[in-house]
């Protein structure tokens, strides 16, 4: 049981055994979170700053709750309203924050690689809460935990990731994680929403939903990232829904016990039919939200353990 | 003044494609003779100021086509003085400067200004290029005739592609009637807008906005069609992809007056070098796949690609210390180009005459200069270097004001010992 990371910047640097360690710990935090008294003290005395350069309600509150349940002092900084608008560079912001001695920094940024850059400049542990189109590691970990609980394992499953893969950091992190855990992955969607070099990803690519979903164990739908598109990827939302939106007819091609996932927030009637999303026998979307808090507790707990094991460093 | 004899040298002759042992006799700022007979060298030693090169290589000085100097507008990034010293330190004896300054070099008055600045401060030859359109905005052609008279050696809007094909065809037609050289940046501008990487698995995994390498071929196809239409003398600044090479080859075979260049970075690095968003590796066009690098290297060997340049682009730390997408493009290269390219020589991928054909001979020929050759009568613009001397590059020791090199910490082999411009040493290690 080892976890050797200083930061959680992506799934890419993680080893499979580290993923398992994290998920095992998260299971314990699921139990804790379901208890009436939800407090633990793994992060007691530590300061957690949530720095969101991009709007987020779900992820930010999930991190906030995770930190509070483990006893950290949590501060939220909405960076759109802050100095970034006054022309301060990301690195200056990082250095300013660093001087306040946070222990855990949770960062979301609209540019790929921005969180990596920031992590090079601070002494605390940095968690990537989503950077551009690059990675969103805690989302992939919570998806993994959800799958493992629903299917009883996290290997040798047929998993279809469907929709707007090109603009999705969730898809990249999931692809990396599910590959590391030795699953078969299919990517389903129109070619305009597939990233370039897709043939080299080690996944099977389908442009037809019926074929792509045939006999899969897990159907992961992605949100159509309208805010990240600069126009003209699909002709219309109704045509997209007709061909790639998940409805009962398309889901019928998957295994009878296949689960349906979505990272939220959902565009009902665009990528997913409302009744599928609400079907408690198929949809694990609510469970994903619950696992999110547990996985973030586990991630911050493990990073804090590594942080405490290191001697205090002088500020650069 | 006595003639100078540089003896015990290895002479790199890119015209003949040979490396031979011998001596160079310099007189009045020019090469008077190439001497290979031992007897003759011995005789000359007594009659001249003789300098023993101890077996070092000597080659025609580099003519670097496409150097950005920060004057006017960005002198904090690079001045003619610092660029000139960096050039001298790198064996570059002629800098052919880019007009992508602020303001752009688009009037004879601005050109006059930079020529004066260059002559006053730079220790090497400086030949300016001028903008093809006013403000490099792609709407109206500049006063090509006046600029030509004022000393512009070529016309280019640099990495801002002239999107309006009608404007470009007129500018090219007018340039043809003046006999002027137009340098293009082959790139389909709308496809490549906002791109920070070449499309493919690497860019997708890093989540970077990317452009298909095909955009280069589309840009080149358009430019070549316009060359066919107008008959202009055309040079493609950088051909960096395998897919663009057949189009270039066809244009040459059809007898069009077309040449092409390549940057030192695209010859020695590939997209994977960007690794974890290292912004010093962000150049324009973006670094390509290893397959592309191999293809352009082969094109350099066969002569399909004519010119190698540093595309020296000084950037301050602030413009590079940003998320990759937002960071400025470009790298400094005047001083590092020779040792970096010698990597290819040490790896057995290209021989020294081929290297100097691209660095010195071809760019000189393209601009109608009499330098770039190691033969009697040519100007004594020379670089003397030890091809084997190992060193670790420390970017803070560069002469450039800006230190944005992707080769910081790289183990390189090859050190410039002396650079001569018109027979006068401008750099000695």
From TrEMBL, chain A:
Catalytic activity as recorded in UniProt: carbamoyl phosphate + L-aspartate = N-carbamoyl-L-aspartate + phosphate + H(+)
InterPro entries cross-referenced by the UniProt entry: Asp/Orn_carbamoyltranf_P-bd, Asp/Orn_carbamoylTrfase, Asp/Orn_carbamoylTrfase_sf, Asp_carbamoyltransf, Asp_carbamoyltransf_Asp/Orn-bd
UniProt: L-aspartate binding residues: 86, 169, 223
Pfam family, one: OTCace_N
Aspartate/ornithine carbamoyltransferase carbamoyl-P binding domain: residues covered: 6-148
Gene Ontology terms, MF aspect: amino acid binding; aspartate carbamoyltransferase activity
Enzyme nomenclature, EC number: 2.1.3.2
GO biological process terms, semicolon-separated: 'de novo' pyrimidine nucleobase biosynthetic process; 'de novo' UMP biosynthetic process; amino acid metabolic process
Pathway(s) annotated for this protein in UniProt: Pyrimidine metabolism; UMP biosynthesis via de novo pathway; (S)-dihydroorotate from bicarbonate: step 2/3
Subunit structure: Heterododecamer (2C3:3R2) of six catalytic PyrB chains organized as two trimers (C3), and six regulatory PyrI chains organized as three dimers (R2).
UniProt cross-references to PANTHER family, sorted A to Z: ASPARTATE CARBAMOYLTRANSFERASE (PTHR45753:SF6), ORNITHINE CARBAMOYLTRANSFERASE, MITOCHONDRIAL (PTHR45753)
Function field: Reversibly catalyzes the transfer of the carbamoyl group from carbamoyl phosphate (CP) to the N(epsilon) atom of ornithine (ORN) to produce L-citrulline.
Protein name as annotated: Aspartate carbamoyltransferase
Taxonomic placement: Bacteria, Pseudomonadati, Pseudomonadota, Alphaproteobacteria, Rhodobacterales
Gene name linked to the record: pyrB
Automatic annotation (TrEMBL), chain B:
Gene3D superfamilies referenced in this protein's UniProt entry, alphabetically: Metal-dependent hydrolases, Urease, subunit C, domain 1
One GO BP: pyrimidine nucleotide biosynthetic process
Pfam family, any one: DHOase
KW Membrane (keyword) present: no
Gene Ontology CC annotations of this record: cytoplasm
Keywords linked to the UniProt accession: Pyrimidine biosynthesis
Gene Ontology MF term list: allantoinase activity; dihydroorotase activity; metal ion binding
All residue ranges annotated as the Dihydroorotase catalytic domain in the record: 58-241
Keyword Mitochondrion part of the UniProt annotation: no
Name of the protein this chain belongs to: Dihydroorotase
Organism: Alloyangia pacifica
Lineage: Bacteria, Pseudomonadati, Pseudomonadota, Alphaproteobacteria, Rhodobacterales
